[in-house]
Amino acid sequence: MTQHSRLVERVRHELKFRVAKVLKSERITPQMARITLASDDFESFISLAYDDHCKVFFPEAGATGFPVPERGENGLVFPDGKRPEARDYTPRYYDNAARTLTLDFVLHGDGAASGWAQDAKPGDTIGVGGPRGSFVVRGDFDWYLLVGDETALPAISRRLEELPRDARAIAVIEIADNGEIQKIDAPDHAEIHWLSREGAQPGDPHRLLGAVQALELPSGDGYIFVAGESAMSKAVRHHMVDERGHNPDWIKAAGYWQTGSEDFDDGHAH
């Protein structure tokens, strides 16, 4: 496989809004809920990349219905300008034939998303917009490095499960404690390093950065995905590109959240 046969391509999708109902909710770890949604509109749902994001809209407390937006020039426009609380989530699994979409929710704090996910039960209604596009990595690389905290775990897990069985993959994943370790159907020889905070607060960029700095990476061409706290993602990208000389076209670093900010959005693909 030559450098020219490897391509990172952005694919745009028609923006759609779907109203869905909870089909099933389960705790896969103490701090991670897996919720399967059902809607006839998922027959046309598309997600081409492991790190795609759909915008999930949460109903107001006590609401019996869900406002359906119209498509405007700059995205979705809700009735009376009342836009529900919304957060971005990775499509963990989807099944067009069964018309289902499965999302993993990190349960932390008392925000709209975490609160809804903790109490979600079959029949509850929620809104799903997008994905608006996919960042597709085409071609086989010699190795893959995946780095992130629990907010990136759905994307990292999906990537590991979608790689060929003989792919060389290394994942470094920060979690709250060892109770958050998940079983992942990864390639046969994948290396997964679980980095437990053991009670420490999330958001220290040096924890994952230090683990990456200590890695001895394979030879050949690799593709790197980094996601999680914004400062950490920037620091790991700087280390790999500026200090190790990694090809900047073969790394994607996304900030999913920022310490001290509740409404952070760095514009990564939705």
Could you explain how this protein is built, in words?
The protein folds into two domains: 10-133, Translation factors (Elongation Factor Tu (Ef-tu), domain 3); 140-257, Nucleotide-binding domain of ferredoxin-NADP reductase (FNR) module (Rossmann fold, 3-Layer(aba) Sandwich). It is 15% helix and 37% strand. It has four helices and 16 strands. The chain has helices at 112-119, 153-162, 205-213, 230-243, and strands spanning 7-12, 17-29, 32-38, 54-58, 70-72, 75-77, 85-89, 91-95, 100-106, 125-129, 133-138, 143-148, 169-175, 191-196, 222-229, 251-257. β2 (17-29) and β3 form a beta hairpin. The model has no long low-confidence stretch (mean pLDDT 92).
Brief summary:
This protein is of the alpha/beta class and 270 residues long.
What are its keywords?
270 residues, five-stranded parallel beta sheet, alpha/beta, 2 domains, 37% strand, Elongation Factor Tu (Ef-tu), domain 3, Rossmann fold, 16 strands, seven-stranded antiparallel beta sheet, single chain
